[in-house]
Amino acid sequence: MIELARQMHDEFDITVFSPYGGENKFQLTESDKFHVIVGASRSELMEIAQRADVLFIQANVLKQYPRLGRMEKFLIVDLYDPYLFSLLVQYQDDPATASSSYRLMHQVLEKHMLTADFFVCASERQRDYWIGRFCALGRVDPAMYKFDPSLRKLIDVAAFGLSEQMPEKSGKGLRTDFKQITDKDFVLLWGGGVWDWFDPLTVIKAVSQLSHKRDDIKLVFMGIKSPNPKVPLMQMAVKAQSLAAELGVLNKSVFFSEQWIPYEQRVNYLLEADAAVSAHYDLIETRFSFRTRILDYLWAGLPILTTGGDQLAEMIDARQAGIAIDYEDISGWAAAIEKLADDGTFKNACAANSSQLAKEFYWSKSAQPLKKFCRAPYHTPAFEKVTMPSIVERAHAVYSRGGKELVLKRIKELSKDLLK
Question: Which residues contact 203 (CB under 8 A, 6 or more apart)?
């Protein structure tokens, strides 16, 4: 949100609001047209919103602040995260929580989708998914189609982006935090949280397998717990640490940063890595995911090893910015790691392709759909619940297509059907 605001404030007055303070704060006022407010109250939010022309919200905001949806402001919702799929994974072993959480968030999501004027998502694949949901809800009706047959005015792509400035070291990195890692080691970086829909176990097993014949492969997990205090440590993070200990590679070949690396400091870890990794399972969440950590890898020009199945993995494989590996393929992961570690020419080619691919995700490009809406905001056609047409409405529709003759024909056909 901060990065998008930085792209927008050259044309608009922007205020970014969060009810949470957090330990790591951005500069709170960057210019007269760009303000960041953290840890403020509900009443302060309502005052800010009342002065605004356009509201841009994420996640489940209308559940916490339903009044925002009743202000008759131009409302944008960010749908970059199809979080219902994540919930299915996270609570799969807890039926009561799974049912309650899914039904609650389903209703929250529906409220957002029926209330807002404009939506953005992270990829064209996600956009296809959301258009399907809009159709099922009845939001894509004749009035909406007439308003915009392309539906770009309803939902467009504004992916998570990257800075156009090259990354530069600004402080200590992973080798300072983990003294066991030396300059001769080949370092694989897992650059984000360890959530339940990820598969760190396969990567750990591959590194463990390699550790029996070489000691220069190191795997670093940059953070295992969300910086959001309301998000608990997920079971997959616990499983990953337990597996590393069980295999005897914890703090030898596999390392976990217990503290979340702040956004501004992540570059120091990225630039000390030799390659980056991301692994996941064959889930519906995978197909519609958009792994923002992958963009950080591209920005840093890192060769990428990832499980296939999502849109970014397919792009990485096609552009030869790394290697896409089959689901839960331990041997495949081990072979891919050794390929990058031992073939300098291949590694350098992947790194160059990674840097080239990064150019397609600059923030300046990602912000364009939002800028376009804010330059000339609009209200999309109001949602009307889909109901069965009455006999009179159906007769009128038949008459409009073929006049009295078609009406009489349909009546005869209906009479024959009734007499059968």
Answer: 188, 190, 219, 277, 279, 333
